[in-house]
Amino acid sequence: MRRAVISDVHGNLHALKAVLDSVDRYSPDQIVSLGDTVGYGAHPSECIALVRQRCGIVLAGNHDWGVCGRQSLVWFNPYAREAALWTREKLDPTEIQWLDSLPLAHRDGELLFVHASPLEPENWEYIDSLMSAERALESVDARIVFIGHSHCAEIYRVNEQMLVNVGSVGQPRDGDPRARWCLVDDKTMRPELIAVDYDIRGAMEAIHAAGLPEMLAERLEAGW
């Protein structure tokens, strides 16, 4: 099976559409979303609808939990908190219920999918070093663990295991503003990180029009 893995759409419809167009050129058997469909961006409902339509597996992220009320917003920075509260007001009860119903992890054979870390996924730990990756991989026997959360696309290899951060569709933070996703084939077990150009200016203008914090627009262009 060939799978496309996406994460951290964050309400950025312009980026999501571009990524799905890129995914379609590879004709995968399944699309997996690692969570944070909403938060930050100006099109939460549209992104929820598209993710529900296109993704066979959808997980919960901390922003999804924050918007639906399962995660306290006290831990969010002021920009994230404002965006979460704005998003909560924009969604209807069925969309909120859907966010609340999402699982934290999904296991399929030697592949494990989770938003943040396989080690206590509900604590939303950031994996941003080889040391933290080793610690996370010690907690599971999966051959490849796919994560998002930090918005930085990278691959850590520890003995026979890999931890793959697929990066962010809607808000990259590694200095490259392009949207990211990952392709993996169950036979070769070789993940490929793919970057996609999209209409960043359009996404920024949508944030401005929504009255969301200016910083949320500026960071899209900077990729941080």
Key structural traits:
alpha/beta; 5-stranded mixed sheet; 10 strands
Task: Please characterize this protein's 3D structure.
With 224 residues, the protein is an alpha/beta fold. 36% of the residues lie in helices and 20% in strands. It has helices at 13-24, 44-54, 62-68, 78-90, 93-101, 130-137, 200-210, 214-222, and strands at residues 2-6, 30-33, 57-58, 105-108, 111-114, 144-147, 154-158, 161-165, 179-185, 192-196. Strands 3-2-1-9-10 form a 5-stranded mixed sheet. It has a 5-stranded mixed sheet with strand order 4-5-6-8-7, covered by helices on one side. The mean pLDDT is 97.
Helix share bin: 25-40%
CATH fold-type name? Purple Acid Phosphatase, chain A, domain 2
CATH homolog superfamily: Metallo-dependent phosphatases
In spatial order, strands of the major sheet run: 3-2-1-9-10
How many distinct helices?
8
Q: What sequence of helices (H) and strands (E) makes up the elements?
A: EHEHEHHHEEHEEEEEHH
The termini sit apart by 33 Å
Alpha carbon gyration radius: 16 Å
CATH architecture: 4-Layer Sandwich
Low-confidence stretches: none
> Hey, roughly how much beta strand do the residues contain?
15-25%
Total strands: the figure is 10
Explain briefly what this protein structure is.
The protein is an alpha/beta fold. 36% of the residues lie in helices and 20% in strands.
List the helices and strands and how they pair.
Layout: E1 2-6, H1 13-24, E2 30-33, H2 44-54, E3 57-58, H3 62-68, H4 78-90, H5 93-101, E4 105-108, E5 111-114, H6 130-137, E6 144-147, E7 154-158, E8 161-165, E9 179-185, E10 192-196, H7 200-210, H8 214-222
